[in-house]
Each structure stands twice: as C-alpha cells, then as structure tokens.
Amino acid sequence: MSKRTGGGAIRIAVAAASAVRRAGLESIIGSHAEFQLAGSFATVASLAPFARSTELDVIVVDSNSIHDLLLEPTLEAAIVLLTEVSDARSISRLLRSGVRAILSRESEPDDVLSAIFAVYDGLVLLSMPTAESLAAVFGGQPLQVEDELSEEITSRETDVLRMLAEGLVNKDIAARLGISEHTVKFHVSSILDKLGASTRTEAVTQGIRRGLIPI
Q1: Which of 4, 6, 25, 160 has the least CB density, counted as fewest CB within 10 Å?
Q2: Residue 190: CB partners within 8 Å, gap ≥ 6?
Q3: Which residues of the chain does CATH 3.40.50.2300 include?
Q4: What is the CATH topology of the domain spanning 141-206?
Q5: For residue range 14-29, what is the model confidence (pLDDT) as tens digits?
Q6: Pairing between strand 99-103 and 78-82?
C-alpha cells in the first residue's frame, strides 16, 4: 500500500562527491512537485548527522565507495544508491545497512524518480545487473529449502512482514492489527530469526524473494 496520501512533500537529502553529479540529483528532485530537497552534501559522513537530526523520507547517494554507507549506523530514511558496485557480497551488506534501491550511476532521471517513489512506499528496487549478481549467488538454492523456510512463517507473521514492506513502524502495525507494540516487537524478532535476517530491510528483501510479499 502506498504511503502517498497527498499529505505532504517527500523530504529528500542527497550526497555525491562530484559537484556535477550532486547538481544533477538536485535538479531531478527539484523537477518533481511531490519532492522537497531538504539537504545536499558532498559525503555520507557529512550527511549522516543531518539525517539523524532532521525528519527525512529518502536519502539519495551517488558513490562507488560504499565504505561510509557500511560504517554508518542504519539511518531511518530509505536509501537510494547510485553505484557501479555490483558484487553480491557488497550488495547483501548494503541491503542489511538500510539501502533499499541500488541503481547504476548512469540511470536515467525517470529511473531515479521511480526508485525514490518505490523506497518511499516501502519497496526494494534493484537494477538488472544487481539482481543478476544476487541471483547468480542465491539462485541455485533448492526450492524445497525455501519452501520449508517459508512454511515456518505464521499467518500473523506474514501480515507483519508485509506491513514492514509498506514502511510501517511498530506503533502503526500494532494499531492496524489491534495488538500491543510489545507483541509486534516479538513478531518482528521472530521474523528476523526465521528468515536469517539482521535488519527489517533484509527481512523484506528475503520476503520478496521467497514470495511472502507480493510485488
């Protein structure tokens, strides 16, 4: 379910070492009426303190150096990464660190716009080379193993997982299901354990991959 209800602009910050590429991102964001550019930075390290003190919806980063993204504690805003990094190990680490979309640095403006809307709506978006890299590593797993893993997830846990994919926080999930936040935390912990995930984003990625979350 989309979070876009017409209530306000999507607040976005950008980071790119290149002033030219940074200006390009600023232009893309400025071209859309639903977007508000909240900040623009040369590095992720300089953006991070701002992100922690400012309410942001999406962060767009243009970089081939993922070091800062992996070192920074997970930020609340969804991250769109423009990069040429495509090895499966790095991609997996990036998804665990909070990155929700990975695109080529040469992506068209419309692709960047689509990625921003996708991550704002709680989805995970990968470019074809990135998806193929993950498939080459994980695609050979026997289907019966995935089926067994999927069967471990209860119906209620599936409901919670799908709400995580929508970007809902524990309080909102509790209100929608009519349960306590403590119970939601229990379900989330169980989901992470059963899917072998270390973060909510990784759990959503696994859920999509195993067919638990419709796309």
Answers
A1: 6
A2: 157
A3: 10-137
A4: Arc Repressor Mutant, subunit A (1.10.10)
A5: 999 999 999 999 999 9
A6: parallel
Q: In this structure, which CATH number among 3.10.450.50, 3.30.10.20, 3.40.50.2300, 3.30.70.141 belongs to the domain 10-137?
A: 3.40.50.2300
Provide the token pair at 131: 């998806």
Contact between 45 and 68 (Cβ < 8 Å)? yes
Amino acid at 145: V
CATH 1.10.10.10 domain range(s) in the chain: 141-206
DSSP notation for 43-110: -HHHHHHHHHHS--SEEEEE-S--HHHHHSPPPSSEEEEE-S---HHHHHHHHHHTEEEEE-TT--HH
Looking only at the bridges linking them, the beta strands covering 99-103 and 58-62 are unpaired
pLDDT tens string 59-102 = 999 988 877 776 565 567 889 999 988 778 788 888 877 788 99
Mean pLDDT (whole number) for 97-113: 89
| b/e sequence 71-101, b meaning 16+ C-beta within 10 Å | ebeebebbbbbbbebbeeebbbbbbbbbbbb
